[in-house]
Amino acid sequence: MTAVLLKGCAAVVTSAYDPVLWDHDILCQDGAITAIGPDLARAAPAGAEIINGAGLFVYPGLVNTHHHFFQCFVRNRAALDWTRYSVIEWLDRIYPIFARLTEDCFYHSAVVAMAELIKHGCTTAFDHQYCFPKHAGSRIIDRQFEAADLMGMRFHAGRGGNTLPKSEGSTIPDEMRETTDAFIADCARVIDAYHDPAPLAMRQVAVAPCQPVNCYRETFVESVALAHDKGVILHSHVGEGESPVIEQVHGMRTVDYCESLGFAGPDTFYAHCWELSREELQKMAAAGTGVAHCSEPVYLVGAEITDIPAMDALGLRVGLGCDGAASNDNSNLMHCVHSAYMLQCLASASRQDPVPPPAAFLAYATEGGASLLGRTDIGALRPGMAADLFAIDTRKLDYVGTRHDPISLIAKVGIGAPVDLTMINGRVVWQNGAFPHLDEGALFAAAEKTLHTILPQTGGL
Ligand SMILES: [Zn+2]
């Protein structure tokens, strides 16, 4: 692998809480950062690619901790907007469309989602793939890894699944249901085939049953056993309105239910958690369980605003996620950093709390996400860590008046346009408005063609 020297970067943000390094170089080799310093030209090996860092503010790559790539194929459908319906009515409308998805749809929607993530500075993506229509076959996760290889993205596959039939209270159509045995067997298969525990791994797998209301108890119990046996992360949706249902069925709210099954701890993180009490958050903090906060669904659903500063103060591990396009029509984690910050500013007034520091939101989207995924080699820029970074050229009118504080810039001002450079594992995958190794036009055409095999080109459904 070739070496890359980012030379004379205007500012290097190594992490949200470290001092900014002004006018520094970054040297990368074999997928890792080997040095950060004021003048590294002499340390660079012969033949190293040189990138002119003039005007560039460089940051650790963003880490997306919750998404549903397949939902990219149902974006911008105002007629389906779940704010118009009860959740059950909405599910009845959206799931028949999800049930049509083919194996190719999963591949191309992954390409679409990862492309947008990369354009906006995300270098590691976790996807919670829980949609397995029977006709789509058994290679959906494999096709997602294929898409990640194509895009050059560091990819964590959350192998989701649903086991409870509708007749027993599930909200998932039976054509997407699996047995616990089939779910666990395929989790084991994809872990064995793809999960790489080594430093700088480009592929990892998590066991991620969709949500407790759509699975049998045994599915969660066996997920815990498998994840512990294989040494992988656990993930699910928790605290998004289902606790009363779980209490009715299992006699306790979701956090207690998950903890009683062992589905909690430093190797576990939940998505959402907006309905949780302070006592539940304290239990999660004591166990070490983390939270993937998805700010944009909160706007759309009008749900209670998750108290992120309170979670932080309790010591909970917090990361950020886009969530799927059914509850956020974009895959732009950079946008989510800004929206999460603005949402907490809004809430701080009614809580009579101080406005939270913008730096915290960059930290959630980088080191916080890395922690949720169990990674110590991503989320910050330091020698020995992965060469995963993004850069913005601040020599634009957009940034006049903002350049004195690169750390706050991301959350407080927000980065509206695509970034100018994204590097993953030491390889430039996005630069100056193009994917240097890919034909975006051809990928667009292939994705559109596949989309129209299941949905018409007009707005009708
Ligand atoms: Zn979700």
UniProtKB/TrEMBL annotation:
User: Which InterPro entries does this chain map to?
Assistant: Amidohydro-rel, Metal-dep_hydrolase_composite, Metal_Hydrolase, MTA/SAH_deaminase
> Which GO terms fall under molecular function for this chain's record?
hydrolase activity, acting on carbon-nitrogen (but not peptide) bonds
Per UniProt, the keywords (alphabetical) are: Hydrolase
Q: Where is the Amidohydrolase-related domain?
A: 57-429
Record's family?
Belongs to the metallo-dependent hydrolases superfamily. ATZ/TRZ family.
Write the protein's name.
Answer: Amidohydrolase
Identify the species of origin: Yoonia rhodophyticola
